[in-house]
Structure formats: structure tokens, C-alpha cells
Input
Amino acid sequence: MQTVDQLNFDNTYARLPENFHSRLSPTPLPDPYLVSFNTDAAHLIDLDSEEMTRADFAEYFIGNRLLPGAEPLSMIYAGHQFGQFVPQLGDGRAILLGEIRNRAGELWDVQLKGAGITPYSRQGDGRAVLRSSIREYLCSEAMHGLGIPTSRALCIVGSNAEVYRERIETAAVLTRLAPSHVRFGSFEVFFYRGQHEQIATLADYVITRNFPHLADDMDKYQLFLNEVTQRTAKLMAQWQAVGFSHGVMNTDNMSILGLTFDYGPFGFMENYDPGYICNHSDPGGRYAYDQQPQVGLWNLACLAQALSPLIPAEDIHTVLNNYAPAYHQHYARLMGAKLGLSHTTRDDDNVELITSLLKMMQSSRLDYTNLFRSLGNFNSAADATNAALREQFIDLAAFDAWAAAYRARLQHEAGADSERKMRMDRVNPKFILRNYLAQIAIEKAEQLRDFSEIDRLLNLLVKPFDEQPVMGNYAEPSPEWARQLEVSCSS
Ligand code: AMP
Ligand code: MG
Output
């Protein structure tokens, strides 16, 4: 384990041609204080967690002091935002310090989010507020706990410097880690400019660094697009299965590694509602929950266009045509597992059971997470009434018909009910990051400078499948006061 001065930085992105990035230093913030530190993420870069107690720790992770070996830069990219192409975006408030190869040989980019103005800030102030930093910090670790690929969050450092959003808030810097911060939009910027050589340079960089098994293949670019497509299809299925909505699926927020990242106005659906929109700034529902799988493909088509100078058109079509079947296969498998059903030739029966259950959940306005969790207790005996489950549904006849079909399907599963429950509890989380839980942690932090709730939630959410008999109502749906909470793009 290393101290902050011993971290072994490199920055290969800085070695790419000049028009890939801008070198710059973070802009200092006054009187930084540590808000939260994530020991699990520290291990990813071999950082000794005792380091968080050093007097100068906050200075480093708010950007007032540069970590030895860091070569700070902001990356350029473009992106399709709500369907419109914006030819130039870029890290408007994020600064990449470099990358660390850990003892296990893994590469982790270290990025400060909210570290000040960059050449790509446009009208923005280069800052992030404490509120949104807490949300991203908790959600990225919650997603990791759920087994969903994501950027990771190392720590939050706050400052009392004022930041102007809908109201006056205070600044914070989130340090995040990912094996790459390259986005679909990183390729689009060069395609738009007609800089085809740069597209190849970036593709080669990403392949060598993050897809090394493809590097020597004649068809490496096609295989690369194929792998991004497959990973994205799986990611979308994983989001759908846990009821996660990203909120701003612009191509500049799509990771080339198929990770969940750039958390903004995300939300976990509570009552099952396919049209669920988590982002108050998206009234048309372009990025509604049920749109996500097809938006994933739309975004991949943008990436494919940007890679079109490198890949023959017919190969691009082949790759993109594989998206839908891959998505459906992952979705059927994940949802089948939520019902305790193994992946068999009976996938079609599974889909039927899933679809009819979701329909009933929607009309009875049932909590998506909790209903699936409670389904683990389904008694498959012929004379069982499953009363506790049954009484949650409005249409009892529909439930009885569904329960009979489910019971029949369970006859084909090996093992007793108790074994099935154990399987189901490993895929149906008890704890998700409900907006109101984050809100309570945020208000305590903002008003009282009490950060204990952040740590409590973090500890809970990294083990979302464990029973964890905790004090409090952490597994309960939103209380009445929180139903109207609105989350917008403002962060
Ligand atoms: P987002 O939708 O949050 O991923 O941001 C879209 C673009 O706006 C990215 O290029 C961000 O870097 C930039 N951006 C967002 N917020 C700010 C800010 N406060 N200051 C500067 N740039 C920002
Ligand atoms: Mg973004």
C-alpha cells in the first residue's frame, strides 16, 4: 500500500497528439475538507486508506496540490445531446491526473470532477456542487455493489466556496476512477472534423490499452466496435433489470468500455412504471426507462458512424444487427434469474411470466425492487395461498392465474423453495439508492456538515443483497414528502 506521494502515475493520454486534450492545472478552492473516503476504491490504486487522515489529504484531492507524477489535462470530445450533434464539448470541469497501474496489473485513470474551468467549459463555471457529488459517489458504488460495470468513486472533498445553481450551493470535488474515460463522443469529435487519422490513433490507443486481446487481429476495428456493442447491450439489460435510469444518455456520457458513468439526474425506479423519467429536464422522455435499450443502439450507431472510416459499411451493419438479440438474451436471462428461473430452452415461457408480472406490478403500482425481493418467499406448494404477496395486487384473479403459471414453471427447476430463495436473494437487491435516501444524506451534509449518513449509506449499498438488519427504513419506498423530489441536469 502506498502513500499519496508514492502513487505511481503515468499519463498516456498526454502523449497523444495535442488536439486530443488541453493541459492545465486545477483551480484551487479555499479550506478544503474531506467529506467521505471510500476504502474499497482506494485499494484499486493501492492507496493506503490511512492516508485519508493526513493533514494535506484534502489539498491533494481538491486539486490545490498536485499529486507527484500527475500530468493534469482535460479531454476533448463531442456528442449527440438529446439527439442534436454538438461538435465540441470536452471535460468542462473534469481534470484527468493520469493513470495508475496497480499491483494486480489493472489500469485506473484518476480524474478530479469539479476542479475548475477548462478550455471546454463553455458557459459553465467548472465546478460541481456537494449535492451532485454525493449522488454520484453513492450511486457509482451502489452500482458496483449490484455487480453492474461503472466508474468508481474514491473520495469527495468539499469547500465552502459558493457555487450558483438554482440556489446557492457549495463546491466539491469528486475523485473518480475508471480504466478509461474515453467516450463515444471522443471519436465523434474527429469524425466531424474529418480528421480520420486521429480516429485511427484514438482507436489504436483504446484497443492497445483496454482491448489488448484484439490488438493483433486484422479486423481489430470491427471487433472493437463489436465488443463495445456487446458490452453496451449487456449494460442496458443490467440497468433495466435493477430499474436504473441514467437520465442523460447523450453520446458524450457513453463509456467506450460499457461502464455506467457521468452520473447526473439518474434515478432508481420505485413503482414499476415503464415510462419512468428520472430527469426533470427531459419532459419528452427521450431517456425514459423503457427507452434506454433502443437509445443504447442509437448511440452505438453514432459511434459506428465515427468509426466508419476504419470499418467497411457491411461489417458495421452486421455488428449493429447483433445488438438487439444480445440485449434480449441478457434481459431474458437476468429477469429469469430474478424469478429464480434458470436459463433453459424455456426462455420464451420465462419472458411470458416476466411480462405478465410486470403488467400486474404496473397496474397495482408496486415497488419494483421490493416486489422482486419478496418473491423469493413464494411458496410453490399446490395448496399455498401466498397471501402476503397476493394481497399487494389489485387484480386478484390475474395474480392467481400468474401464480399458477409460475408454480407450474417452478416444477421444472431443481431444488427446494429455500434454495430458490437463496438464488433470488443474490440477484434481487434489498437496498437501492432511492432518491430520498440520498436526499437525507445531502441535507445533513449541507446543513450540519454531518457526513455520517453518506458513510452509512455507502456501507449499506455496497452489499445490496445482504439482509443487513439495520436500524431505520432503508429498504422502504419513498415516504410521501419525497415523492415530489425533482432531479434536473443541474449539478
Ligand atoms: P453532462 O451532461 O453533465 O455530462 O455535461 C455535458 C457537458 O457540459 C460536458 O462537456 C461537461 O463537462 C460540461 N459541464 C457540465 N457542467 C459544467 C460546469 N459546471 N462547468 C463547466 N462545464 C460543465
Ligand atoms: Mg458528461
Observations:
- Residues 252-253, 262 surround magnesium ion (ligand 2) (CB under 6 Å).
- The chain has a mean pLDDT of 96.
- The chain is about 40% helix and 15% strand.
- The two ends are 34 Å apart (CA to CA).
